[in-house]
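Much of our argument rests on the idea that a fold can be written as discrete symbols. The amino acid sequence and the backbone structure tokens for this protein are reproduced below:

___
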Amino acid sequence: MQIYWTKINHIIEESPEVKTYLLDLPEGFTWQEGSHTHFAFEGFNAGEKPNRGLIRHMSICTLPHENSIGITTRIKDQCSEFKSILRDMKPGDEVAIFKTHSNVPLKREDKNVYLLSSGVGLATFRPLVLEYLSNAEGVQSVHSLNVDSSKHYLFQDVFETNPEHKFTAQFVDSRATYYEAVKGFASDADGLFYIVGSDEFLKENIELLRGQGVAREQILLDKREQSIAEFLPDAQNV
């Protein structure tokens, strides 16, 4: 396992509770859209076993051509030890990244793609949208729907409806409005439905989509294959 040590280059205050940490790009480090990485602090591997309190899975919200690794996360007043450390970090501080992998790359199967997210889950989809806008080959259209009760909607410079590119972006602040929109999307018999959010959010979306006749193979989750069966019990090779 290769561990890349790098430094925080810049911190963006997206909203009162959400920050994006832009990391310097280590030589040889690369990734694709939809990737997550293990993000850790100094001392995480100092003992015989890794200190899991100093490690988190984080989605990467940038693409390699942007020349930085973006990590967007919500940090509340009452938070974990990990988030508390992260909140106090500044540009120049060092962090580690390793075991980078994408569970949800953009599929190019000549179908409509629906990106369903809650809150900062949108960070996972930012690179997919950028990838689509730069090259739409094999994708009929992309529709993003994000629910965030805080109304501090993220990345509105990217998530902006663009009819010319067959891209629509919708932000809502209530689950009721959100799920009504999802029902409308579910009428697409061949659509691909990407979902990112809490486990509860995933289960609610899957129940709704499956209830509307969407096949399990059309549902894509930002989960490792061995974890997908928990959400899609009869899934095989999803």
User: Anything to note?
Assistant: The chain has two domains: 4-102, 111-231. The first strand starts at residue 4 and ends at 15. The mean pLDDT is 94. The CA atoms of residues 73 and 120 lie 6 Å apart.
